[in-house]
C-alpha cells in the first residue's frame, strides 16, 4: 500500500496552502502516496477558489474518513481560522496558532501510526511566537513532542545531501561544538537516512572546519584532534567515509556524484553551498524563482520532511509560488516511509 502522508498547512497567510494544492493537483503525487492535509478546511477551500483551482476540499475529522482521491483534497479540519479576520500576507496571531496546531496534529497521527510520515509547509516564527508558542521552528517542535534528545537537520535535493554538526548558534560556539562524538553521531544519522532513500552503502564526505582542512595543522587543530579521529573510528566500523575534505571542494564533489552525502561542520558552511545549488533568483522580477530543496529532521521516531523555504508573504495568494520543494518533500517522505515499511 502507498504510504499515508500528513501534510501540514503551514502558516495560512503564506504560500503553504497554495503549494500544497498545486502539488495535490498532480496525478504523480497520488501515484507515490496517500496524502491528507492537517489544518483548516475553510482556508484550503478559500485558497482554491481565489486561485481558480479545479479541486474540491473534503473536510474530515479522522484518517479513516479520507478518500485519497485526486481532485478532492482530504483535510483533517481543525477549524482554527476565523475567515472574517483572516488576512493573507500578514503576520497574525491566529495564523501562528493555526500553523502550530496543524503540526501538533500531524505529529500525533504519526506517533499513533495512523500516518506513515509527515511533510511540513512553512510557518512564520514571528507569528508562532506571538501566538505563545516559543519554539525556534519545526525541528524544535518535533523534538519536544516526540521526546527526542539527539537529532540533526539534513538538507537535500536530487543531487546534494548535507547534514550539520551544529546549526543555530554563533560561529564561535560552532567551532567549539566540533567534537569527535558529535561528528560520529551526525554521520551515522546521514548514513541511516541514505539507506532509507534506497542507497545501500552510502559514500559520505566529511568536511573540514578550517581552510584547506587545516593543511596538516597549519590553520587550526580541530581536524587533527576531533575530525580525523572520528573518521578513523567510523572506518573501523565499516562505514564508507572520507575526510576531512577541504570545505571549499567537498560540496562540489558531492554535487557531481562523488559523495552520496556530506557532513558540514556548521550552519552556513552547509546552507550556503546547498542554497547556491537549489535557489534561483530572477533579477528581472526581483523575486526568488525557484527554491528547490527539503529539510529532513533525522533522529526522530517519525518521518518529518519540510520545504526548505519560508512563508513568502510578499507573494501569498498570487498564484506564482513554485511547488518544487513541496513535491520533492513528498517524494522523499514517500521513499523513506516505504523503506521503513520494508525493513
Helix-strand sequence: EHHEHEEHEHHEEHHEHEHEHEEEEH
What portion of the residues fall into strands of 2 or more residues? Answer: 15-25%
Span of the ends, CA to CA: 15 Å
User: Could you describe the largest sheet, including whether it forms a barrel?
Assistant: 12 strands, mixed
Structure description:
By secondary structure, the protein is an alpha/beta fold. The protein is 39% helix and 19% strand. It contains twelve helices and 14 strands. It has helices at residues 16-24, 27-32, 41-51, 93-111, 125-130, 138-145, 171-176, 180-196, 222-236, 250-255, 267-278, 324-341; strands at residues 4-8, 34-39, 56-60, 72-77, 117-120, 152-156, 161-164, 204-207, 241-245, 261-264, 279-282, 287-291, 294-298, 304-307. A twelve-stranded mixed β-sheet has the order 3-4-2-1-5-14-13-6-7-10-8-9, with helices on both faces. A two-stranded antiparallel ribbon has the order 11-12. Strand 8, helix 9 (222-236) and strand 9 form a beta-alpha-beta unit. The longest helix is centred in the first third of the chain and has 19 residues, at 93-111. The mean pLDDT is 92.
Summarize the structure.
The protein contains twelve helices and 14 strands. The chain has 343 residues and is of the alpha/beta class.
Break the fold down into its secondary structure elements and pairings:
Elements: E1 4-8, H1 16-24, H2 27-32, E2 34-39, H3 41-51, E3 56-60, E4 72-77, H4 93-111, E5 117-120, H5 125-130, H6 138-145, E6 152-156, E7 161-164, H7 171-176, H8 180-196, E8 204-207, H9 222-236, E9 241-245, H10 250-255, E10 261-264, H11 267-278, E11 279-282, E12 287-291, E13 294-298, E14 304-307, H12 324-341
Parallel strand pairs: 1-2, 1-5, 2-4, 3-4, 5-14, 7-10, 8-9, 8-10
Antiparallel strand pairs: 6-7, 6-13, 11-12, 13-14
Helix pairs in contact: 8-9
Amino acid at each position: 500500500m502507498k504510504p499515508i502522508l500528513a501534510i501540514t498547512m503551514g502558516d495560512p497567510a503564506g504560500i503553504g496552502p497554495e503549494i500544497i494544492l498545486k502539488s495535490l493537483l498532480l496525478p504523480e503525487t497520488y501515484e507515490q502516496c496517500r496524502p491528507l492535509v492537517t489544518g483548516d478546511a475553510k482556508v484550503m477551500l478559500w485558497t482554491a477558489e481565489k486561485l481558480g483551482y479545479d479541486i474540491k476540499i473534503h473536510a474530515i475529522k479522522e484518517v479513516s474518513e479520507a478518500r485519497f482521491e485526486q481532485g478532492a483534497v482530504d483535510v483533517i479540519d481543525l477549524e482554527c481560522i476565523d475567515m472574517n479576520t483572516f488576512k493573507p500576507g500578514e503576520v497574525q496571531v491566529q495564523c501562528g496558532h493555526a500553523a502550530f496546531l496543524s503540526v501538533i496534529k500531524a505529529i500525533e497521527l504519526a506517533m499513533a501510526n495512523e500516518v506513515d510520515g509527515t511533510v511540513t509547509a512553512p510557518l512564520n516564527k514571528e507569528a508562532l511566537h506571538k501566538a505563545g508558542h516559543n519554539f525556534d521552528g519545526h525541528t524544535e517542535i518535533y523534538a519536544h513532542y516526540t521526546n527526542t534528545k539527539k537529532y540533526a537537520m539534513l538538507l537535500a535535493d536530487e543531487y546534494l545531501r548535507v547534514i550539520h554538526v551544529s546549526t543555530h548558534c554563533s560561529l564561535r560556539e560552532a567551532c567549539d561544538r566540533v567534537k569527535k562524538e558529535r561528528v560520529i553521531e551526525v554521520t551515522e544519522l546521514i548514513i541511516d537516512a541514505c539507506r532509507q532513500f534506497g542507497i545501500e552503502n552510502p559514500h559520505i564526505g566529511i568536511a573540514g572546519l578550517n581552510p584547506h582542512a587545516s593543511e596538516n595543522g597549519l590553520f587550526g587543530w580541530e581536524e587533527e584532534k576531533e575530525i580525523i579521529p572520528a573518521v578513523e573510528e567510523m572506518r573501523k566500523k565499516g562505514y564508507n567515509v572520507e575526510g576531512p575534505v577541504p570545505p571549499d571542494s567537498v560540496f562540489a564533489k558531492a554535487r557531481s556524484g562523488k559523495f552520496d552525502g556530506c557532513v558540514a561542520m556548521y550552519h552556513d558552511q552547509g546552507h550556503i553551498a546547498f542554497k547556491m545549488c537549489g535557489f534561483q533568483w530572477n533579477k528581472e522580477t526581483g523575486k526568488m524563482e525557484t527554491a528547490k530543496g527539503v529539510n529532513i529532521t533525522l533522529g526522530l521516531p517519525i518521518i518529518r520532511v519540510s520545504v526548505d523555504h519560508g512563508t513568502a508573504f510578499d507573494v501569498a495568494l498570487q498564484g506564482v509560488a513554485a511547488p518544487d520543494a513541496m513535491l520533492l518533500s513528498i517524494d522523499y517522505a514517500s521513499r523513506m516511509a516505504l523503506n521503513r515499511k520494508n525493513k
